[in-house]
């Protein structure tokens, strides 16, 4: 065999699979079909959108949004240029870090499109049509996903956009319609509303981010309303038309909405069609590849990780999946992954959570209490001027263990890890009460919310 392990795809899952193999002294190679490494995580998704979001966030925090945005729009376009420059600078720096790390570990990088010849061999075709056959003892599929692009939506990368093409716009529209109310949709609503674009949202659900706690999402919705976002909830799009200098979106209700541009952000689909997985005997459904707990496909020496296997489809989970797959392949020491995985939505304000929502706990008929801490009631929250932030604990009334942590506000994606560690270490809400937090910090909200919970728990015991 040419390699001990061949990894197809250089996104977060593929990178970590390669590094793990190299650390075990194995001959590893990555095949990447795009001109640059990093996959959607670096090039077209996670990192670029968060880098652009940072410019928008700093603008809202400065308190000078109205002053910065001149009525004629001159400064608005300069702000977009700032956001794009920041995005491209972060991508370039991260690409250099990843490339050096791979080369330092001795991982071979092979450019081209991979397709299976048989269960141990892939054919890699480069940009000029040359084909190379490569064999490996183990193969890890980490080709990721891409935005779903229904045939009836007239995408043109200028006025009708998906979450990849919108990252490359160079002219800020005056108005933008966002189709969808999920994570990606809400993140771009934040970015463009903060840059002064008149944004409206169309979604079939009753609330944004329908799977999250209603009280947490209401804080985000209020923030959006404050930035002038309009909502068309429980509505469906029947047609999107491109016109000379605008778009026309027609809803099932008959409403017609005219905007400069449309962002269609409803779901993603797997990058598996070109792999020809049936030649290797791999079972896939609608392009998604099924795996067992060790990330083996229906062919035991072929693994699949990351977005390609479906939910949770996060960069963080993909990284762990890549490592675990390689450890299993080469008989390395196995470890149990974290039971409770943190999730984050990089909106303005941020949302992050781990564990169960109140609705899920109620469906399971678990006795519970809820403790809340509002950022505005903490010294740090007052210092930074976050009047909307909320930290909420859902606690099992039977054993006092945390069932869920839900945070909306500044640094939510960082703060959630405190609750995650308590949950994964099987701690209780009293561990948070007994802990000492720096003062003033937002982390202190954990203690405030925990004290709220323990008061309720004690009242139950001694009414």
Gist of the model:
By secondary structure, the protein is α/β, with parallel strands linked by helices.
Could you give a short account of the major beta sheet? 7 strands, mixed
What is the CATH superfamily label of the largest domain?
Answer: FAD/NAD(P)-binding domain
Helix amount? 25-40%
Arithmetic mean pLDDT: 91
Q: What is the CATH first-level class name of the largest domain?
A: Alpha Beta
Strand content: 15-25%
Structural class, judged by helices and strands?
Answer: alpha/beta
Oligomer: single chain
Outline type:
globular
Walk me through this protein's architecture.
With 463 residues, the chain is an alpha/beta fold. It folds into three domains: 206 residues, 3-Layer(bba) Sandwich (FAD/NAD(P)-binding domain), CATH 3.50.50.60; 107 residues, 3-Layer(bba) Sandwich (FAD/NAD(P)-binding domain), CATH 3.50.50.60; 119 residues, FAD/NAD-linked reductase, C-terminal dimerisation domain (Enolase-like, domain 1, 2-Layer Sandwich), CATH 3.30.390. The chain is 34% helix and 25% strand. The protein contains 13 helices and 24 strands. The strands form six sheets. Strands 1, 2, 3, 4, 5, 6 and 19 form a seven-stranded mixed beta sheet that branches. Strands 8-15-9-10-11 form a five-stranded parallel beta sheet, with helices on one face. Helix 1 packs parallel to helix 8 and helix 3 packs across helix 6. It is globular, with a radius of gyration of 24 Å. The termini are far apart.
